[in-house]
Design brief:
The protein is mainly α. The protein contains 6 helices and no strands. The radius of gyration is 16 Å and the shape is globular.
């Protein structure tokens, strides 16, 4: 079923919704990472909520974790740190071209 869906998307030259979401998150991350440190969105990248009681079970997967996974896929690495992603996103033109270049291949190689 999955190979059929990918083939239909490839034949129709349509990017999957997962690729669209990943690409949009990475673009927003690049925008926020280039903001001055005093801006609230930039501060929220490193913000960790101070829970009074630790919830049971696995911690929820946050936005930054999802961006780091997408960023590792974008940079073709096994894993990537937040500072490495910020450094890569620092050059706006390069970051934009990298995302645009991966735009079509994201949908085809994504294991979602």
């Amino acid at each position: 079923k999955q190979w059929y869906q990918r083939r239909v998307l490839d034949d129709a030259r349509i990017v999957s919704i997962n690729a669209l979401i990943s690409s949009t998150k990475l673009r927003w991350f690049g925008h926020v990472s280039r903001m001055p440190d005093a801006r609230v969105p930039k501060k929220l990248l490193d913000w960790k909520p101070d829970y009074t009681k630790k919830p049971k079970g696995r911690p929820p997967r946050g936005w930054v974790n999802c961006v780091m996974e997408d960023g590792a896929r974008l940079l073709q690495r096994k894993s990537v740190t937040l500072s490495e992603l910020c450094e890569a996103a620092g050059n706006r033109d390069h970051w934009s071209k990298l995302i645009t270049k991966k735009w079509l291949s994201f949908g085809a190689t994504s294991d979602d």
